[in-house]
User: What shape does this take?
Amino acid sequence: MGGVLAAVIPEPGARVEVREVAEPELEENSALLEVELSEVCGTDVHLQRGRLAGVPYPLVPGHVSVGRLGKIRGRMLDVEGRAFREGDRVTFLDVHRTCNACWQCLVAKSTTRCPARKVYGITYGFADTLAGGWAEKVYLKPATRCISLEGVEAETFMAGGCALPTALHAVERAQIPLGATVLVLGSGPVGLSAVILALMSGALRVLCTGAPDSRLEAARAAGAHATLNVETHSTDEREEWVLAHTAGRGADVVVEATGAPAAVVEAMRYARDAGTVVVVGQYTDHGEVSFNPHLDLNRKHLDVRGCWGSDFSHFYRGAQLMADAARAGPWSRLRLERFGLGRANEALAAVASGRVVKALIDPRA
Amino acid sequence: MGGVLAAVIPEPGARVEVREVAEPELEENSALLEVELSEVCGTDVHLQRGRLAGVPYPLVPGHVSVGRLGKIRGRMLDVEGRAFREGDRVTFLDVHRTCNACWQCLVAKSTTRCPARKVYGITYGFADTLAGGWAEKVYLKPATRCISLEGVEAETFMAGGCALPTALHAVERAQIPLGATVLVLGSGPVGLSAVILALMSGALRVLCTGAPDSRLEAARAAGAHATLNVETHSTDEREEWVLAHTAGRGADVVVEATGAPAAVVEAMRYARDAGTVVVVGQYTDHGEVSFNPHLDLNRKHLDVRGCWGSDFSHFYRGAQLMADAARAGPWSRLRLERFGLGRANEALAAVASGRVVKALIDPRA
Amino acid sequence: MGGVLAAVIPEPGARVEVREVAEPELEENSALLEVELSEVCGTDVHLQRGRLAGVPYPLVPGHVSVGRLGKIRGRMLDVEGRAFREGDRVTFLDVHRTCNACWQCLVAKSTTRCPARKVYGITYGFADTLAGGWAEKVYLKPATRCISLEGVEAETFMAGGCALPTALHAVERAQIPLGATVLVLGSGPVGLSAVILALMSGALRVLCTGAPDSRLEAARAAGAHATLNVETHSTDEREEWVLAHTAGRGADVVVEATGAPAAVVEAMRYARDAGTVVVVGQYTDHGEVSFNPHLDLNRKHLDVRGCWGSDFSHFYRGAQLMADAARAGPWSRLRLERFGLGRANEALAAVASGRVVKALIDPRA
Amino acid sequence: MGGVLAAVIPEPGARVEVREVAEPELEENSALLEVELSEVCGTDVHLQRGRLAGVPYPLVPGHVSVGRLGKIRGRMLDVEGRAFREGDRVTFLDVHRTCNACWQCLVAKSTTRCPARKVYGITYGFADTLAGGWAEKVYLKPATRCISLEGVEAETFMAGGCALPTALHAVERAQIPLGATVLVLGSGPVGLSAVILALMSGALRVLCTGAPDSRLEAARAAGAHATLNVETHSTDEREEWVLAHTAGRGADVVVEATGAPAAVVEAMRYARDAGTVVVVGQYTDHGEVSFNPHLDLNRKHLDVRGCWGSDFSHFYRGAQLMADAARAGPWSRLRLERFGLGRANEALAAVASGRVVKALIDPRA
Assistant: This one.
């Protein structure tokens, strides 16, 4: 009987290949997800290029995905203790095995830094099982945390995708005051979700810098009051633009979501005195950058907060927002492009170039 | 009738001179302080060398001082509404004229960034009045906030001096958890006060790096569990040392109090994942430094907090601690050296070289 | 030359009278406001009935008002240091004389508890000057903080009125998590503004209980997802209703804005475990109420926060929101009723009975 | 081979009996603890009297205990991943089975309200296994979190006992500012630990009310600056006493640790405006109490925080403090009394009457 088709990165730098593999055996309290949509995010581009440490190639990418529970063995419970049933539409937290037993989990209570955690599609490899969303089916191991998406459009949810909990964590950490002016650096998926969530959290005005123009247009459609293209404006021009939009003070809150080390320093410079900067764009090592700790940090009395990963609460609250048509509105207006498994390399290229706001993988296409 | 002797920095880079000036006329609700002790801090060294912007030379340095109210015209009230009397021993908040009317004061509530504030001995010059502590008398303008020091040893209070509110603000901002391991970078007056205050705030272990050995000895006498000389240990050795004292994790909280830009990056590196860094040592512009925002900040999920200036609450609470013999104990054990007005240049040199832990100015010596 | 008409409460319990008084002389840096609109709030009803302590009868009520600066002597500056000009449309912070010199201001930093503060229309009496908005003109003493309302509809701003900063302070103190369910107890002006502001701050669902039906309808029009009439439902029914809307857990955040002591206990009971309760409805002493500290507080691990008064930041940020047409939308849809000075007693009755959502005083009507 | 002796409460209200039972079989990754010391706390008195809901009688009381690991099957790891060995001295977190899978754990992150958690000696009964410390041995189920106590005096650790993590959680939640005046209501074990921990967290002065005099003496020996006997002073006298010690303002922070509902209201009354109250004394239902929400809460702008249970971090940090001789000092000076298993009823009576500060159970006595 039929195997399962999956798109695989064979090794760092190699092109994605579609392979057919046997359907996994289910352990007690596990399930198979029949994937409707998965996505291609910036991390996947880095994965394919071999830029991340600790990745067990070959692997099936795709960390956040939506689908229907095809087969359940034993019980899969939601966070309110209800058992899922076969046929339910769900997503699942891509982070697995947070241990709740180590110093980082129990004493520091910073579970996103738990060394035991594994991420579907990133640190679970092909050898582990079918553990990525670029496949017809994903094996949901025991203790994988599913969230019901009954009544939610798969495509709307995936318009948020993995960027949604990441941005939600960043905006939560930003503690945006009612009426604040927020500057988002970066107009990729995390930046766009940060724009939407900042407005939802009480920001009165959100500014966004990034590129290309199509993404800035998306930022404005999502509610940004003003945008600036970083490819056509120098850092001095950007600073001037920020000051012009903030009564000369700088932004109350800056969310850095770019991937470029220099943006972290810009974030500090564009923040007002005693403002807050959240750094959520530096998930990959792109080297060093120089700053002036007197002028950029100490004298400004800044709060600069690194923001790593996300936990179940971010994913759950993101899903709750997406289940509300009004709240999901700005995401549903983002333009997405679908690619079948066989076109995964094209999808990666489209994301790498910024040509699309977001590329989805549809294993049934 | 007699003039007032004051030590004056005539211009940037010039040697301090003692001058005799006429006693100022008192406005309504002002006073003259007869100085018992003032101090020489790192800022004074920068003042003399012309490293600070916006200083109205010539000026009389000495921002934190202790003395007796010699003459009061009208009323000077303490924070509880009691009127001071001539002869009372007091200190006064060196920051004056925080406006409580600007955006920074009223909306951001970050009064240490109020652009209207003036600092005795730093941004009040000789032209303004006798507004620095290196003098027989200081003119306390209306609305200067005095704090009673009845029953407090002048020398013990000055062992904290201006470093006390600065360090108190930094430690407050660090939000040290009970039982934490705190690393203080720097063994100057702010670093030493940070060591003491971190222990007082619930730290179980405090580590301190700095130089020279005499100051590290003072850190240990003040309660530091271990110290390391930065002049004889490379940054790699320092990192190893910190990890060895923190179960390989890094410190829960790092307070940077050195003045060297590189120390800010070290602070991030020596903090544990999801730890807190307070940057309080960068009061002067010493240029740029390079860091890796992925490794040093984002992936570590750090909180990095610049800490600028101090407000009345820090000064007041510092004075309350100093009025308690047990709490003041660690400061009373610091070795201080007294200099008369005529030896101010020597005092500056002793501070600049780190030869003394702290130099006091005694205008009656 | 013409006097100024003002509505006066002569003494506790007495009917409001319109009197004509001489226009006040202006001190340096003061102004006269030509009132366009003032309002009648619950506090005014208590004022008229003599329920508040420390009120210097006779007085002109009306604490929050909008108008044009008719005459300025010297300079009145806004928070960004710009001088107002005669003819500018403004509102002003009704709280005056926060001292910034007492323990409460400087050490506790809880300026809304400063004992020196005075409130226009409440603790400034007729003897002080024309210090209430139920008059053709209000005398703005030196250091009164005005905020420009150029381009803002006077009626929209007054739809928020004094309830806006009060509710904003409460919602700020509630620290609403993104996606939370918030329950607002009370559908008067503070409750309605709390509904709007909770949604603006990231609440996914807002529930509101109150009366009469017309106000609950206003709550729904302002965005509340569900409402319940407290006059026709018992406390058991209310609890059941809250649990039904919160998956049986209770609300994440409850804002009490009713005036009834019993509502404070209901607020604790309707909150989820480890939830937050903000108590902002108890501005007047209506006696005691009984609760079970084990069941209602300790075992629930609740945060219960009293919220008193508001400061400039709340007023300023409220005005910023009102200057944004989209943000001001929900307020602009509230139904208001205007009364001339001569109908102030009618206005008080309409507010006391809850017949109107809000009554405005239009001195030119 | 011998059975295991254990003291058992057969049913609500019945006297404790010593029984001999068979040693339990060990599951994989479990252990047997050979008890050196357990304790009798207020909760045990309520247990014996049948005042707690959900207790599976018969049961062996004793939730916090110290002993040596007698037998380990499989692996028991500490929080840093090190395996314990037979013979190690340890304590263990009495809370077991926090699920890390429910809404309360994962979304609210308030794990002390997880409905799945079980407590050794309270909600694990005799039918479950040997799950209480009043026995020669305790069965440590898989996933029980042990903490090494090598080099720590068993009696010193037990002087803190279960009160230590409870008080530590309360003091953590109190966020005591450096230099604050803290009032602790209650001089039982939780109150005494709160006195010590408040001082350790930066309080400058700690006041304590309670009874009898022997316990107040213990409070002063532990560092309290002043104490008041509640049996010989009326609430008016107490209020006057608090105001006299706080410049008429009330305490910055009040920790309620009494068990009496009325103390919660006193806590609010004795706190200063904008102060903080932590309620940690209401672990059992003792009925209702009446308060004035205007005067006692809203107008005071108070923060009132219920504090339920404790988690691993509190227990772990408590153990870290106890492993430091200087920090453990105040506890080592508390007078304790030891009782063998056969004298458990006497021990309960001694605790109920307040005759002893703390009663220990020594199963080998």
Summary: The radius of gyration of chain B is 20 Å.
